[in-house]
Sequence to fold (186 residues):
Amino acid sequence: MPDTRHVAVLVGSLRKQSFSRKTARAIAALAPSSLNLEIVEIGDLPLYNEDLENASPKPAAWLAFRDRVRPAHAVLFVTPEYHRSVPGLLKNAIDVGSRPYGQSVWSGKPCGVISVSPGPIGAFGANHHIRQSFVFLDMPAMQQPETYIGSAASLFDEQGALTNDKTREILQTFITAFDRFVTRHA
Fold:
Protein backbone atom coordinates (compact mmCIF):
# COMPACT_ATOMS: atom_id res chain seq x y z
CA MET A 1 0.00 0.00 0.00
CA PRO A 2 1.45 3.38 -0.96
CA ASP A 3 1.88 6.10 1.67
CA THR A 4 -0.50 8.36 -0.26
CA ARG A 5 -3.53 7.01 -2.08
CA HIS A 6 -4.84 8.83 -5.12
CA VAL A 7 -8.59 9.51 -5.11
CA ALA A 8 -10.30 10.51 -8.36
CA VAL A 9 -13.08 12.97 -7.52
CA LEU A 10 -15.98 13.25 -9.96
CA VAL A 11 -18.19 16.31 -9.60
CA GLY A 12 -21.64 15.94 -11.12
CA SER A 13 -22.24 19.61 -11.88
CA LEU A 14 -20.90 21.95 -14.54
CA ARG A 15 -22.27 25.17 -13.06
CA LYS A 16 -19.54 27.74 -12.42
CA GLN A 17 -20.65 28.28 -8.81
CA SER A 18 -21.55 24.62 -8.25
CA PHE A 19 -22.16 23.67 -4.64
CA SER A 20 -20.90 20.17 -5.47
CA ARG A 21 -17.57 21.54 -6.73
CA LYS A 22 -17.26 23.80 -3.68
CA THR A 23 -17.92 20.78 -1.47
CA ALA A 24 -15.34 18.71 -3.36
CA ARG A 25 -12.76 21.43 -2.83
CA ALA A 26 -13.66 21.74 0.85
CA ILE A 27 -13.30 18.02 1.48
CA ALA A 28 -9.99 17.92 -0.41
CA ALA A 29 -8.69 20.60 1.96
CA LEU A 30 -9.77 18.47 4.95
CA ALA A 31 -8.25 15.23 3.65
CA PRO A 32 -5.43 13.64 5.62
CA SER A 33 -2.01 13.49 3.97
CA SER A 34 -2.62 9.80 3.25
CA LEU A 35 -5.21 10.80 0.60
CA ASN A 36 -4.61 12.93 -2.47
CA LEU A 37 -7.97 14.05 -3.85
CA GLU A 38 -7.94 15.27 -7.45
CA ILE A 39 -10.97 16.41 -9.42
CA VAL A 40 -11.21 14.60 -12.74
CA GLU A 41 -13.18 16.76 -15.14
CA ILE A 42 -16.11 15.12 -16.93
CA GLY A 43 -17.77 18.03 -18.74
CA ASP A 44 -16.09 17.43 -22.09
CA LEU A 45 -16.87 13.73 -22.38
CA PRO A 46 -18.91 12.95 -25.50
CA LEU A 47 -22.07 11.00 -24.72
CA TYR A 48 -21.40 7.29 -24.54
CA ASN A 49 -22.25 5.56 -27.80
CA GLU A 50 -21.15 1.98 -28.46
CA ASP A 51 -20.64 2.82 -32.14
CA LEU A 52 -17.88 5.24 -31.07
CA GLU A 53 -16.41 2.56 -28.81
CA ASN A 54 -16.01 0.30 -31.83
CA ALA A 55 -14.66 3.10 -34.06
CA SER A 56 -11.07 3.96 -34.63
CA PRO A 57 -9.97 6.22 -33.21
CA LYS A 58 -12.11 6.32 -30.09
CA PRO A 59 -12.95 9.79 -28.74
CA ALA A 60 -9.76 11.27 -27.28
CA ALA A 61 -11.66 12.65 -24.27
CA TRP A 62 -12.84 9.13 -23.39
CA LEU A 63 -9.31 7.75 -23.54
CA ALA A 64 -7.89 10.62 -21.47
CA PHE A 65 -10.63 10.21 -18.86
CA ARG A 66 -10.05 6.47 -18.56
CA ASP A 67 -6.31 7.05 -18.27
CA ARG A 68 -6.87 9.54 -15.41
CA VAL A 69 -9.22 7.27 -13.45
CA ARG A 70 -7.52 3.89 -14.05
CA PRO A 71 -4.51 4.47 -11.72
CA ALA A 72 -6.64 5.92 -8.91
CA HIS A 73 -6.85 3.88 -5.73
CA ALA A 74 -10.39 5.09 -5.00
CA VAL A 75 -13.18 7.30 -6.33
CA LEU A 76 -15.27 9.95 -4.62
CA PHE A 77 -18.50 11.05 -6.29
CA VAL A 78 -19.83 14.48 -5.31
CA THR A 79 -23.22 14.99 -6.86
CA PRO A 80 -26.21 17.27 -6.96
CA GLU A 81 -29.66 15.82 -7.47
CA TYR A 82 -31.67 16.20 -10.66
CA HIS A 83 -35.21 14.80 -10.46
CA ARG A 84 -34.34 12.43 -7.57
CA SER A 85 -31.38 11.02 -9.50
CA VAL A 86 -27.84 11.80 -10.61
CA PRO A 87 -27.22 14.29 -13.40
CA GLY A 88 -26.81 12.84 -16.90
CA LEU A 89 -23.27 14.25 -16.92
CA LEU A 90 -22.23 11.98 -14.06
CA LYS A 91 -24.06 8.94 -15.39
CA ASN A 92 -22.32 9.45 -18.74
CA ALA A 93 -18.91 9.49 -17.02
CA ILE A 94 -19.79 6.25 -15.26
CA ASP A 95 -20.80 4.70 -18.59
CA VAL A 96 -17.66 5.91 -20.39
CA GLY A 97 -15.44 4.52 -17.63
CA SER A 98 -17.20 1.16 -17.62
CA ARG A 99 -16.33 0.36 -21.24
CA PRO A 100 -15.10 -1.40 -23.23
CA TYR A 101 -16.73 -4.36 -21.53
CA GLY A 102 -14.23 -6.20 -19.35
CA GLN A 103 -11.93 -3.17 -19.09
CA SER A 104 -13.85 -0.98 -16.66
CA VAL A 105 -11.74 1.61 -14.84
CA TRP A 106 -14.12 1.27 -11.87
CA SER A 107 -13.80 -2.44 -11.08
CA GLY A 108 -12.70 -3.10 -7.52
CA LYS A 109 -12.12 0.57 -6.63
CA PRO A 110 -13.53 1.60 -3.25
CA CYS A 111 -15.80 4.61 -3.51
CA GLY A 112 -17.81 7.09 -1.54
CA VAL A 113 -20.65 9.51 -2.25
CA ILE A 114 -21.41 12.99 -1.00
CA SER A 115 -24.62 14.52 -2.28
CA VAL A 116 -25.22 18.26 -2.19
CA SER A 117 -28.35 20.35 -2.62
CA PRO A 118 -29.67 23.81 -1.89
CA GLY A 119 -32.76 21.98 -0.61
CA PRO A 120 -33.10 20.61 2.91
CA ILE A 121 -32.76 16.86 2.19
CA GLY A 122 -29.26 17.07 0.73
CA ALA A 123 -29.88 15.18 -2.53
CA PHE A 124 -30.83 11.99 -0.73
CA GLY A 125 -32.33 10.51 -3.92
CA ALA A 126 -29.19 11.04 -6.01
CA ASN A 127 -27.01 9.61 -3.26
CA HIS A 128 -28.96 6.38 -3.20
CA HIS A 129 -29.58 6.17 -6.93
CA ILE A 130 -25.88 6.30 -7.84
CA ARG A 131 -25.20 3.45 -5.43
CA GLN A 132 -27.23 1.13 -7.68
CA SER A 133 -24.54 1.49 -10.35
CA PHE A 134 -21.77 0.53 -7.92
CA VAL A 135 -23.14 -2.99 -7.58
CA PHE A 136 -22.73 -3.72 -11.29
CA LEU A 137 -19.44 -1.81 -11.48
CA ASP A 138 -17.93 -3.93 -8.66
CA MET A 139 -17.14 -0.88 -6.56
CA PRO A 140 -17.24 -1.41 -2.80
CA ALA A 141 -19.10 1.65 -1.50
CA MET A 142 -18.59 3.16 1.92
CA GLN A 143 -21.93 2.87 3.70
CA GLN A 144 -21.33 5.02 6.77
CA PRO A 145 -21.31 7.83 7.40
CA GLU A 146 -23.99 8.71 4.88
CA THR A 147 -23.31 12.28 3.80
CA TYR A 148 -26.04 14.56 2.51
CA ILE A 149 -25.26 18.27 2.44
CA GLY A 150 -28.46 20.32 2.43
CA SER A 151 -29.05 24.08 2.38
CA ALA A 152 -25.80 24.40 0.43
CA ALA A 153 -26.46 27.99 -0.65
CA SER A 154 -25.82 29.17 2.92
CA LEU A 155 -22.60 27.21 3.54
CA PHE A 156 -20.00 28.99 1.39
CA ASP A 157 -18.66 32.53 1.12
CA GLU A 158 -18.41 34.51 -2.13
CA GLN A 159 -14.98 32.95 -2.87
CA GLY A 160 -16.39 29.44 -2.47
CA ALA A 161 -14.81 28.71 0.91
CA LEU A 162 -16.79 26.63 3.39
CA THR A 163 -17.95 28.84 6.27
CA ASN A 164 -20.23 26.50 8.21
CA ASP A 165 -18.52 24.73 11.11
CA LYS A 166 -21.14 21.97 11.42
CA THR A 167 -20.73 21.09 7.72
CA ARG A 168 -16.94 21.16 8.14
CA GLU A 169 -17.33 18.69 11.00
CA ILE A 170 -19.57 16.44 8.86
CA LEU A 171 -17.06 16.51 5.99
CA GLN A 172 -14.16 15.84 8.38
CA THR A 173 -15.97 12.81 9.78
CA PHE A 174 -16.64 11.58 6.25
CA ILE A 175 -13.07 11.98 4.96
CA THR A 176 -11.60 10.35 8.08
CA ALA A 177 -13.89 7.35 7.62
CA PHE A 178 -13.19 7.31 3.87
CA ASP A 179 -9.45 7.19 4.54
CA ARG A 180 -9.94 4.08 6.72
CA PHE A 181 -12.30 2.54 4.15
CA VAL A 182 -9.88 3.10 1.26
CA THR A 183 -7.01 1.67 3.30
CA ARG A 184 -9.07 -1.46 3.97
CA HIS A 185 -10.23 -1.91 0.37
CA ALA A 186 -7.63 -0.39 -1.95
